[in-house]
Amino acid sequence: MDKKMKKKEVKGEVQAESHINKHPVRHRMNIGKLYFVTTNDNKFREVQEILKPFGILITHKKQDLLEIQCRHTDTVAQVKAGDAYSRFMNPVLVEDTGIFINSLSGFPGVYSAYAYKTMGLEGFMRLMKGVKDRSVVFSTSVAFKPDSHRGFVFRGEMEGRIAQRLSGEHWGYDPLFIPKGFSKTYAEMKPDEKNAISHRKKAFEAFAKFFNEHYCQDFRG
Ligand code: ITT
Questions:
Q1: C-alpha 74 to ligand 1 mean position (Å)
Q2: Range of 87's domain?
Q3: Does some domain include residue 157?
Q4: Quick one: the chain helix, strand, coil %, rounded to 5?
Q5: Cis omega before residue 191 (within 30°)?
Q6: In this prediction, what percent of the chain has a pLDDT beyond 90?
Q7: Alpha-carbon distances of 204 from 50, 120, 132, 167, 188, rounded to whole Å
Q8: Distance from Cα 97 to the centre of ligand 1, integer Å
Q9: CA 94 and chain centroid, separation
Q10: Which residues are identified as catalytic?
Q11: What's the pLDDT score for residue 217?
Q12: pLDDT tens-digit map of 93-148
């Protein structure tokens, strides 16, 4: 990555790193369709809306991807992107999201999907009963892999707290997460309200700026 890009990204809340090699992106290129690979329809819906104002169209590919065990969503997303690229042989976008509860030493973190399926939100409510420190970070890492030898990761985070009771009817962890500066859960917000402030919005906005600066917008979604 060139110095200019690094400096610019470090200033923001998100990271943009080439993990696969250190060559800067030198040329604009027409990348055709951009595949967003996820099994989660809610993610796709949100990301589609977040990218619209940037003129970026995505094509949904529903595919389970390799998810390794490690401590950081950046690494999980990077490996998912490698797997997605080798399956589709096309520029891909993937993401990995985790909710990190401070009083539980970051649990469930990268195991958020597993914990959600096994304990459910009621399980989390039981775990957090009587716990004073309810602070939590929602984190999304987006990995963009335009070709076989480059890869970029962008992260967006939103601090908040675990609600005393579940509220609202959105998907996933939304009914228990109250973002910092608000008194309602993500699930009680309208979709565009959540999209304006969310962890996902921050991560994809960073991706979108990078993409529009370094890659041609001439693709068909
Ligand atoms: P893919 O890996 O196929 O993209 P997934 O749903 O398995 O889809 P993650 O592993 O990234 O995605 O998600 C971890 C968990 O967090 C999972 O249970 C999601 O439903 C949940 N989740 C992710 N983003 C969320 C959000 O914005 N609000 C609420 N829950 C979310």
A1: 14
A2: 12-17+30-216
A3: yes
A4: 40, 20, 40
A5: no
A6: 76
A7: 7, 27, 32, 26, 22
A8: 6
A9: 8
A10: 96
A11: 52
A12: 999 999 999 999 999 999 999 999 999 999 999 999 999 999 999 999 999 999 99
More confident residue, 14 or 180: 180
- pLDDT recorded at residue 221: 52
Does residue 221 fall inside a structural domain? Answer: no
Instruction: Say if residue 62's pLDDT is above 90.
Output: yes
| 49 exposure class (CB count in 10 Å sphere: 0-12, 13-18, 19+) | middle
Gap between the Cα atoms of 134 and 62, Å rounded: 34
Binned at pLDDT 50, 70 and 90, residue 69 comes out as confident
Cβ atoms of 95 and 108 closer than 8 Å: no
Ligand 1 centre distance from Cα of residue 136 (Å): 16
Domain count, the chain: 1
Domain assignment present for 202:
yes
Ligand 1: list residues with CB < 6 Å. 38-40, 43, 96-97, 112-113, 116, 171-174, 186, 200
pLDDT > 70 in the chain, percent: 83
Q: How far apart are CA 160 and CA 189, in angstroms?
A: 14
Whether 2 is covered by a domain: the verdict is no
